[in-house]
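tokens incoming
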């Protein structure tokens, strides 16, 4: 435990935020990171090595989450990468390319080209062939390539043999005699600048000796190169600084290392360090829930909802993690327990034979020190979507990675359409290349909803036209696509059956919010973007309450002459335009005919309008709506309900909440009415029901 993960009144907090509270919002399992802990680690490193003015390159493989990387980059750090993908992540996070160093034994030509184009600081070259490849590509691009040679100093870092990288039997780096030859060769290649020397001897190293031994060898080698006229500017000593995974265990002594390497850092060479684990390891935890308790013949198992696919370190390295209950319990089990996941592997454990306090199913457990090599090594094994990630700073928290959905599990897979499936004896389930849709309805407005966060649907308008057809398609009042948003949980895009894009639809918005919640895209309370502005929603079972945008453009007593009749109505924009007409009874009104005439009136050109026919009734209003785009009466219209309720208040003094009955169902409209006709804080509450789910064959629309 530490001051960033601590108990407050027996409940585990990350900084000043209750972990239990976050769990109710995001569901388990999830990773949680402490912002302040990460900053403290960075500052400790900066302070310890300050005498060198080093370039600290955060090793992305420890945890490449974009938000965490952005924070780290904002403290002036560079990045250590090992692939084109990590280069992409590093640049996306905002690490300047001139602070990026690139290691790895298997850099492909495409990756080398990408790094050259981005002008990274240098490549840590790991073989002679790699150097030749870099030379070839640099020539083609007419660029100079800056390189450093990764030395294999043949040093045992005294760590787990899977994470030792500096011994002669390891694949990493180049031994001294070969390296000397490569430096000489490289210095003669016109397009290559040999700027540095590199080593990385392993990970989770606990004492300074291996570094000192390796550096002594490097120093002798550097002096030799200098005598031969090869002068280097950077000494990159890699990462590997260990952290404490057990109570009372010490972290790697960075101050001591900094002090003791002083005679080994040649003057004129800039020191580079590449810590990963040290920055994020202790700052993260994996929160999981106890599902079942089970007594075996010899053991008691606590089965939790996280698995080795979420955190593989215990299975892979036999790594130890401190594990504590989120709600402190003072009782102990008589027997020791194994804390295991649901994966079909006997190595799927987080602890074995561990004394653990008594907790009940449904309670939460924190697996500490999981910030490094946790999420970055996670997988979808056993059909498990990757988990959500959360960042806490003081008493603020943010969801910084959404939990994946089942959709992600088949994303990108293609079942060839010409594959021979004649021999099937049963109906095959939908092919993985197909796209899941949900059919939902809100007050009788029906919608087709798709998760389009990865923009798998590109021809949105065509898809809407095709699917919304009542007899030849699925049939719906609209197609709703859930897409990514920059500053909200998601972006709701809604298309009419004619393919036109609507700004907003209240009933559709409720369905979108519940869909996003059930798909794990957003929490119980969420904010999403629409073309009409941001919308806030709260979901409780099948009831969704949404905050609508404040209405505007109110126009009183608009008189329209159509044929021989004059219609007097009220105009208001509640996200989309609405024209409201009051009738004694709306029962006999010819909605389609009258609605069409009004929406086509030149007063509303060029956009047209929706038309609401309103009757004051009992304890609320009864409305029928003609919707442009649908070009017919619909069973209900959310923005129409809001518009009609507000106008009924302004004209007939109905007070909120106004109950609005529509053919398709009822909704309640809340708002605040301020001086004059200023209306604010508008909420619409109603049901959002799932009618059925199915699959589209994606081929035509992607
Ligand atoms: N640099 C290189 C080249 C690495 O391969 C690694 C990890 O394996 C690191 C830095 C970061 O190591 P650590 O997270 O132990 O600091």
């Amino acid at each position: 435990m530490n001051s960033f993960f601590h108990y407050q009144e027996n409940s585990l907090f990350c900084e000043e935020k209750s972990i239990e509270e976050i769990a109710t919002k995001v569901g388990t399992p999830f990773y949680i990171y402490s912002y302040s802990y990460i900053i403290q680690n960075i500052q400790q490193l900066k302070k310890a090595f300050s005498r060198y003015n080093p370039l600290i390159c955060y090793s992305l493989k420890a945890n490449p989450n974009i938000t965490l990387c952005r924070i780290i980059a904002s403290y002036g750090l560079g990045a250590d990468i090992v692939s084109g993908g990590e280069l992409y992540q590093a640049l996306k996070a905002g690490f300047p390319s001139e602070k990026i160093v690139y290691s790895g034994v298997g850099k492909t030509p495409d990756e080398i080209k990408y790094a050259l184009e981005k002008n990274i600081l240098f490549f840590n070259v790991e073989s002679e062939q790699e150097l030749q490849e870099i030379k070839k590509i640099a020539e083609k691009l007419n660029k100079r390539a800056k390189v450093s040679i990764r030395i294999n100093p043949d040093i045992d870092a005294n760590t787990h043999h899977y994470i030792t990288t500096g011994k002669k039997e390891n694949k990493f780096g180049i031994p001294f005699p070969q390296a000397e030859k490569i430096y000489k060769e490289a210095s003669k290649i016109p397009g290559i600048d040999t700027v540095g020397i590199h080593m990385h001897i392993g990970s989770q190293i606990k004492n300074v000796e291996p570094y000192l031994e390796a550096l002594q060898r490097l120093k002798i080698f550097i002096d030799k190169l200098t005598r031969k006229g090869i002068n280097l500017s950077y000494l990159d000593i890699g990462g590997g600084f260990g952290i404490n995974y057990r109570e009372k265990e010490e972290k790697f002594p960075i101050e001591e290392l900094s002090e003791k390497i002083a005679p080994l850092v040649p003057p004129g060479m800039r020191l580079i360090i590449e810590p990963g684990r040290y920055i994020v390891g202790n700052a993260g935890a994996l929160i999981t829930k106890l599902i079942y308790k089970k007594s075996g013949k010899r053991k008691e198992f606590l089965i939790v909802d996280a698995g080795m696919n979420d955190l593989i370190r215990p299975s892979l390295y036999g790594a130890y993690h401190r594990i504590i209950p989120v709600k402190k319990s003072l009782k102990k089990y008589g027997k020791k327990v194994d804390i295991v996941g649901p994966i079909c592997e006997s190595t799927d454990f987080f602890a074995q034979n561990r004394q653990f306090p008594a907790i009940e199913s449904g309670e939460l457990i924190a697996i500490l020190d999981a910030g490094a090599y946790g999420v970055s090594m996670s997988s979808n094994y056993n059909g498990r979507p990757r988990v959500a990630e959360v960042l806490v700073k003081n008493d603020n928290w943010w969801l910084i990675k959404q939990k994946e959905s089942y959709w992600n599990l088949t994303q990108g897979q293609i079942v060839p359409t010409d594959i021979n499936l004649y021999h099937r004896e049963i109906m095959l389930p939908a092919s993985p290349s197909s796209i899941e849709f949900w059919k939902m309805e809100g007050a009788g407005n029906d919608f087709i909803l798709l998760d389009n966060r990865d923009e798998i649907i590109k021809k949105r308008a065509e898809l809407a036209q095709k699917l919304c057809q009542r007899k030849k398609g699925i049939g719906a009042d609209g197609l709703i696509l859930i897409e990514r948003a920059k500053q909200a949980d998601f972006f709701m895009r809604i298309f009419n059956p004619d393919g036109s894009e609507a700004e907003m639809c209240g009933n559709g918005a409720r369905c979108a919010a519940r869909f996003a919640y059930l798909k794990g895209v957003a929490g119980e309370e969420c904010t999403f973007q629409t073309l009409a502005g941001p919308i806030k929603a709260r979901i409780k079972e099948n009831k969704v309450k949404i905050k609508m945008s404040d209405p505007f453009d109110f126009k009183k007593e608009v008189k329209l002459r159509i044929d021989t009749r004059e219609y007097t109505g009220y105009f208001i924009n509640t996200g989309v335009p609405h024209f409201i007409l009051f009738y004694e009874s709306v029962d006999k009104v010819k909605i389609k005919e009258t609605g069409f005439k009004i929406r086509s009136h030149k007063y509303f050109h060029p956009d047209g309008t929706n038309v609401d026919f309103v009757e004051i009734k009992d304890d609320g209003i009864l409305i029928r709506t003609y919707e442009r785009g649908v070009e017919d009466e619909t069973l209900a219209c959310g923005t129409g309900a809001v518009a009609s309720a507000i106008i009924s208040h302004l004209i007939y003094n109905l007070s909120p909440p106004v109950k609005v009955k529509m053919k398709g169902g009822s909704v309640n409209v809340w708002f605040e009415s301020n001086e004059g006709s200023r209306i604010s804080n508008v909420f619409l509450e109603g049901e959002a029901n799932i009618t059925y789910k199915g699959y589209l064959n994606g081929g035509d629309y992607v």
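note: The longest strand covers residues 284-295.
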